[in-house]
Design goal:
about 180 residues; 3-stranded antiparallel beta sheet
Length: about 180
């Protein structure tokens, strides 16, 4: 078992991950704030879903989720269609424009991580991915489920960004692919 001083240092390091999150949020296009990027990311990762499931994955209430969904729907990035099982509910789906926006977000985050982690070995990146995935699992992160298969290229951004997530979905925005795969630097 780790010593108390180790856990104190870990808490300081996790708190400092905010700098990584802020830098990743800065690369988002003006028309796609973090909440909107989080909606696109989660629909891309998990596939079509009800708004209630999206709110759960975002870890925010329905009113916040509704605002994010309205923003991406206004831009044509998602469609809302009636749920065949419950006509009062809506199923959210990515549109081709939403897929294109998601691919752009993936490219941006991959480029930044490739630049910032250029002096890291493949083994170091793999170790970070494994440990952050394990950390998320230890905290019961409901978003750490098996991702929905997607045709886009996988990125290291997936795990680096999503594992660093704090209570707000800022870092979730640039998360794009499965934590088990990554592209070469």
């Amino acid at each position: 078992m780790a010593e108390q001083a180790q856990f104190e240092e870990l808490a300081r390091q996790l708190s400092a991950v905010g700098a990584v999150k802020r830098d990743l949020a800065r690369i988002l296009p003006h028309e796609c704030p973090a909440g909107s990027a989080a909606v696109l990311t989660l629909l891309g990762r998990h596939g079509s879903m009800r708004m209630s499931k999206l709110a759960e994955l975002l870890a925010v209430d329905m009113s916040v989720t509704s605002r994010h969904v309205a923003h991406v729907a206004e831009r044509g990035w998602i469609e809302r269609s009636p749920d065949p099982a419950d006509k009062r509910s809506r199923i959210l789906h990515l549109t081709p424009a939403g897929e294109a926006t998601l691919q752009d977000l993936s490219r941006r985050s991959t480029e930044m991580l490739t630049e910032r982690l250029s002096d890291w070995s493949d083994e170091e990146v793999d170790q970070l991915i494994r440990l952050m995935t394990r950390l998320r699992a230890s905290f019961g992160d409901c978003r750490a489920t098996t991702p929905h298969p997607r045709p886009a290229a996988a990125t290291v951004a997936a795990t680096v960004a999503s594992a660093a997530r704090a209570p707000t979905p800022v870092i979730e925005a640039p998360v794009f692919e499965s934590p088990t795969t990554r592209t070469p630097a």
